[in-house]
Design goal:
The complex is a heterodimer of chains A (about 100) and B (about 140). In chain A, about 75% of the residues lie in helices and about 0% in strands. Chain A is mostly helical and about 100 residues long. Chain A has one domain: Helix Hairpins, CATH 1.10.287. In chain A, helix 1 runs antiparallel to helix 2 (about 30-55) and helix 2 runs antiparallel to helix 3 (about 60-85). In chain A, about 35% of the residues are buried. Chain B has about 140 residues and is mainly α. Chain B has helices at about 5-30, 35-65, 70-95, 110-115. Classes of the chains: A mainly alpha (about 100), B mainly alpha (about 140). Chains A and B meet through helix 1, helix 2 and helix 3 of A and helix 1, helix 2 and helix 3 of B.
Chain lengths: ~100, ~140
């Protein structure tokens, strides 16, 4: 049963990533829209790697899952600060 | 395979399929909803729930097959549950301050009405510098 369910779920998640990429390259999308899509796209990528680790019955991908999660959060925070203030790291608080 | 093994395998399959279906519904919402604020509603809430279902299924599978309580997987679940709402909030606050327009069917913009923050104001604006837009002093 798992041999059918897991590839079907990975196909569904891949379809979801394709739809998000279509929306990301759509001309009416704003910058915040694209950052939002990048955030949820990385969540779906975590889901695909988790299903892959069930399928291969291996615990070797858990570090990859953890790292994708951390990098996704950090990049989302950095990009949204860039949209908000035009800079990512504020050195001089008086002028920003 | 034993009966309990079949039950746990079925539980894992149900959790993974449920997570996939929730993520597909969230993607449908992202494709169909009119502006970035409503799309953030679909993206952050639904994909977080779907991802938690998939990761819970993974955790139960490795708990059964390897007798392994994976700290890394629990850490990922905790981290995603903690950071996904924060990231969604940050993006939407940045979008509102960068004056991304609302959908044309929106009735009112409660954030601008309440705080009166102009679109190009510095973010650390003091509270007394914003003019009070409520004459009744609430």
């Amino acid at each position: 049963m798992m041999g059918i369910v897991l590839p079907a779920c990975m196909f569904g998640l891949t379809l979801s990533i394709a739809a998000m990429l279509y929306r990301m390259f759509h001309s009416e999308s704003s910058m915040a829209d694209r950052v939002l899509l990048l955030d949820s796209l990385s969540f779906i990528l975590i889901g695909i790697v988790a299903i892959l680790s069930i399928w291969l019955n291996s615990t070797a991908f858990f570090e990859a899952i953890l790292l994708i999660g951390i990098i996704a959060f950090t990049s989302t925070i950095a990009l949204s600060r860039f949209i908000e203030r035009g800079v990512v790291i504020v050195r001089d608080r008086e002028h920003h | 395979m034993s009966a309990i093994g079949n039950i746990i395998e079925g539980l894992v399959a149900v959790l993974v399929v449920l997570g996939t279906v929730i993520i597909l519904i969230s993607t449908f919402g992202i494709l169909r909803l009119p502006d970035v604020y409503t799309r953030a509603h679909a993206a952050t809430k639904a994909s977080t729930l779907g991802l938690l279902c998939i990761l819970g299924g993974t955790f139960i599978h490795f708990l059964h097959t390897h007798q392994l309580i994976s700290i890394r997987l629990l850490l990922v679940i905790f981290f995603v549950f903690l950071t996904a709402p924060v990231a969604g909030h940050m993006i939407i606050r940045a979008a509102h301050r960068a004056s991304v327009p609302l959908a044309s069917i929106s009735a009112r913009d409660a954030l601008t009405e309440d705080f009166g923050v102009p679109a190009d104001a510095p973010p650390d604006i003091p509270a007394d510098a914003v003019p009070d837009k409520r004459p009744d002093g609430r």
